[in-house]
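Structure first, sequence second, as always.
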């Protein structure tokens, strides 16, 4: 059973969502503001649903502090049309956003999509690698990706990618030298169709570029092809 931390100061909404998500088989814990969320968050949560407009500590500041210690997937709940907050959330490491008011079925679908690509194997992350895990590892230009625990290592250092960033890197590495459209990347890595004016892929790519080290061959990792998509450079 996936465990959700729902962070919103709207008590009526949190009660309704808690009941809905419980019926869908999720375990739901509630926090009424950012400070309460930060006090509750730990590695046991599989996803955080985080409202932006809250008293005491807003969602943007909460996300910023959360990302200092946790890579737990975060779905931001934003006011419809508030593009600035959505962009800031994605820049700070949110996995996706959903504008209010939203359809219950869409919320559940988004949560399940994020969980599918961001499965947190907590026991594996604390265990030593097994030969089987090593065989499953993906290597490219000095990077070693472990899909089972969604971890990327470079020279012994964990790059601490979010689940979405890891999924995006996996898709690109499986298709080196190929132009991948933003639409394809959205489907494969984010689990959703790309909509008009959706900048999620671009923001996640920007975050990924910042976290990746300098390549041994000094090539850039990716090239942006305007109007076409992204390509993982091979030489």
């Amino acid at each position: 059973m996936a465990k959700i931390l729902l962070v919103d100061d709207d008590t009526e909404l949190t009660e309704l969502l808690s009941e809905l998500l419980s019926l869908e088989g999720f375990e739901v814990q509630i926090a009424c503001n950012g400070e309460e969320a930060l006090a509750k968050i730990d590695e046991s949560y599989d996803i955080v649903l985080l409202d932006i407009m809250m008293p005491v500590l807003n969602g943007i500041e909460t996300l910023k502090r959360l990302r200092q210690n946790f890579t737990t997937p975060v779905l931001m709940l934003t006011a419809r049309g508030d593009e600035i907050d959505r962009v800031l959330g994605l820049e700070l490491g949110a996995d996706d956003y959903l504008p209010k008011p939203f359809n219950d079925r869409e919320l559940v679908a988004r949560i399940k999509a994020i969980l599918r690509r961001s499965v947190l194997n907590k026991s594996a992350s604390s265990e030593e690698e097994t030969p089987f895990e090593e065989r499953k590892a993906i290597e490219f230009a000095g990077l070693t990706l472990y899909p089972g625990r969604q971890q990327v290592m470079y020279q012994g250092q964990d790059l601490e990618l979010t689940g979405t960033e890891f999924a995006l890197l996996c898709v690109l590495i499986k298709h080196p030298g190929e132009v991948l459209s933003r639409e394809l990347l959205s489907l494969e890595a984010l689990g959703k169709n790309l909509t008009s004016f959706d900048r999620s892929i671009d923001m996640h790519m920007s975050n990924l570029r910042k976290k990746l080290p300098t390549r041994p061959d000094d090539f850039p990792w990716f090239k942006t092809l305007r109007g076409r998509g992204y390509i993982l450079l091979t030489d």
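Margin note: Residues 120-135 have pLDDT under 50 and may be disordered.
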